[in-house]
Amino acid sequence: MKFRFTAIIAFIFLIFGHVVRAQIQKIDYTTTDHETLKINRISPAASSQSDKLSLDGQWLFSENVNKAPCTKDIQVPGEWVMQGFEVAKDAYAGYQKSFMLPKSWKNKRIKLRFDGVYSESEIWLNGQKTASHLGGFTPFEVDVTQFVKWSGNNQLVVKVKCSSLADSLASGSQYAAHPIGGITRKVYLVAIPKINFAYADFKTQFDKDYQNATLSADIIIANEQKASEKDLSVRMELFMADGKTKVMAKSANIQAGIEKGGLLQQNISFEVQKPEKWDPEHPNLYMVKLSIMDGDKLADVIYKRIGFRQIEVRGNQVFVNDRPIKLRGVCHHETMPLRGRSVNDNMWEKDVELFREANVNYMRTSHYPPPEELIDACNRLGMFLEVEAPFCWAHNTPVPLGTPLYHTLLVDQTLDMVNYFRSNPSVLIWSVGNESEKYKEYFKETAKLVKAFDPTRPRNFSQWGPAADDGDLEITNYHYPGPEGPEKFKNSKRPIVFDEYVHLNAYNRQELVTDPGVRDAWGIGFKSMWESMYRTPAILGGAIWAGIDDSFFLPDGKAVGYGTWGRWMGGVEKSLSIGMSKKSILRLK
């Protein structure tokens, strides 16, 4: 009865509560070409684990929160469909969670972070609407300092709708053959000092001999206190991966003051002698510690694991650390048969381990940005990534061009993707969308913004042919070029990647039931295709469709999804598939 009473009170607050909008904070970032981009703030990690409060676990749920309070149990993260709930297409489901804040947080700023809510949401805290968000595969953050209570329980209600413009542009529910609504990735609160890092990005660049390197940090400092601040300095320290063995350190005084509520962008850098380089075969990582000093007091500190890695496009080849690379890859969906598009525990790391065992060195995150857990695993275990913006078959979305919401969604989600993942050595390529046509109308501007925001990585428009991007981007591609593809594109002026190719037999279901050995023949064609790609310098590599089955076992007993694509995640097939791939690409081990 306690839960039910609390839920009803929260429902009353939700309907009648006083509304004070916090919304998602925009910050200005000035690029190296002096262009100002407005990006959504995603604060760097908290300085210590004690300053984070996970809200994962059991919540209360309503299939229609505008009509009934949240009284049913549901697990977060997770899809509601995979937990047996049915929500009407245009209804807002409701999630409710109560929490208490540590007293030690009282003089700090409180940020509420969602790594993924699919796909349109409203955030209500203690009866007040704090923000709304559109986009199912990108993280967002809300400053809730003015809404929290320091005594007693805080009541958090998240209203979520699956059907939205974001779902349509991503073809998310269409692709999964079921509505994938819910709080699908982790959610937590974080407390940060009033003078803090609002943004931090780390870059590495080698000298002409690729021996020594420059480590630089672009930072934005926020002053969220009620007075201006002048006596600040920034200190950057580099440690070995253990976080204890110091390599280098440098401090820099901030010349300009920061007004109350203001932001200040700075850069700090130093030279590193002969750092160990990062690549998939040698995933050497370092730890960076970045501190803000207010006089002789520590104001804020963040940590980030980085790798010394430099990407260059030279003619029709891609070089990493002055060596030409060949991508032996797979396309990867975020999926589990019983959980849908919400993966738990350490499954991301298990995926990467299996792919590395099969001599795979490259994953394409088809067709949306992944959670940070996958990126972290790729950094540690050694895996290149093509990170894809959440736009799939977007040309089918019935929204008139020039619609402000449409434009804002394309830009915001693309910049959110780059902002969240750009400091990771495993991220090799940005893909601005999948098989979405209409490059000039839809994606030309977002591709330009990606280049302005991150000029250190090549861009790709993942399509059916090399002319789809009007020749704008550093890398071109071709989906399913056939065995003649390497010969056809051997004289390409740009690097070309077959980031979908050698599709697994999946749709001839009756044939597969009667003759499962049909799949074994796949390895013959793959080996021949790969050998031809390997011998052709202009062919950057490819991503097999696909590395993982995209099947969903719904609670009602129905199985849905596009098909059993996966060579590594297909149950009893695993050993045979890994063996085929190892033998086919052994020469590049």
TrEMBL record:
E.C. designation(s): 3.2.1.23
Keyword RNA-binding recorded: no
Chain ranges of the Glycosyl hydrolases family 2 sugar binding domain: 68-193
A Pfam family assignment: Glyco_hydro_2
GO CC entries: beta-galactosidase complex
GO molecular function annotations of the record: beta-galactosidase activity
Alphabetically ordered keywords of this record: Glycosidase, Hydrolase
Chain ranges of the Glycoside hydrolase family 2 immunoglobulin-like beta-sandwich domain: 202-309
Stated name of the protein: beta-galactosidase
Organism: Arachidicoccus ginsenosidivorans
